[in-house]
Amino acid sequence: MQLLNADDYRAAARRHLPKGLFEYIDRGTEAELAIADIRRSLDNIRFRPSVLTGHAGSNMTTSLFDRTYCSPLIIAPTALAGLVSHDGETKLARVASKLGIPFCVSTQSVTSIDDIRKGAPEAELWLQLYVWRNRDLTWGLLDRAQKAGVSTLVITADTPLSPKRDYNQRNGFSVPFVPSLRGVWDVATRPKWLCSVMLRYLMTSGMPTYAHYLAEFKTAITRAAIAEDVKIESAISWADIAEIQKRWSGRIIIKGVLSVDDAIRARDMGIDGIVVSSHGGRNLDVALAPADVLPEIVDAVGAEMLVMADSGIRRGSDALKYLALGCRAVMVGRLPLYGLAAGGEQGALDILTMLIDEMHSNLVFAGAKDIDALRTAGIA
Ligand code: FNR
Q1: Closest by alpha carbon to 69, among 105, 97, 106?
Q2: Which residue of 267, 274, 359, 374 has the fewest CB atoms within a 10 Å radius of its CB?
């Protein structure tokens, strides 16, 4: 079957992945209200097109900090991309490199930052940071990231806990994998995934798990003790951000901001950027939708700091809506994962190319010669 839109890729991902893993990627939390609200907020926006502009095409090149990118797009950090396809994080890094956009590596990646760098030497890597309970381990990760040439640290601020996902409790999906009849049956029903992903890991590096800490601590400490150390710090605060500012010489972005007050606080601390995000509807199920708060946040801090946004981008027009509301770039999380599941590296490249093509054609239809023009004239 031809894969012509995000729904086609999503359906292909559903066919290929074990149910527990597919639902982990695809679904939200609790009653999944946030996912519906993100959709509603984007669907309510319309553009007022200009006609007869004489533009043959539109320009999507974007400057972020001191660099120019082909499109205002960043591959979002997503935990466990390496379970969706073998070496999935490295594949995403290579895709980003081909598209001329950054890839933000998740703290909860299956592949370590060092190995991703080896597999994608040209990629612009950002690192998403969850502050671990064990701060020494956290600072160790920052040092390794700096050595791996990571330019930008994205600190996720909206995940103080693991969210409640009862569907995953029912279908036996957990990390680390705890064998259950349900979970084993789920995996056994997807023999292609089992051979191409799981067995490949088992025959090479062993049972896949979060790799960033194992890369450093393959020593006397037991895995259980390590796991305690790398639980996400629930009590993360602005004081931690100040500490990280002392230790990290690159740029710092805070991800998961939904209030003007938090945006102002970040700006006043000298943070380089924020991502206005409700984590794709995966954390606080009653969180505001990013599109509903983005304009007021851009008004408050947009002139002085880089404002980005994410959540719910499934079509090029969704991405343009966030940009028209004033942010300078957008992140996409699930789309590249659907692409990876459907067709590995090529699948991820294809789905993002499709997204960029859709962004371009919508920009042309709106009569905007570039994103700035859309911002000033576009929203109806
Ligand atoms: C995520 N997201 C995420 N964010 C983060 O800061 N650290 C992480 O480890 C993860 N992990 C993760 C796993 C999976 C499977 C998904 C789908 C998402 C959130 C991600 O960065 C981004 O905010 C959302 O995915 C954006 O919404 P869309 O594009 O998926 O709708």
Answers
A1: 97
A2: 267
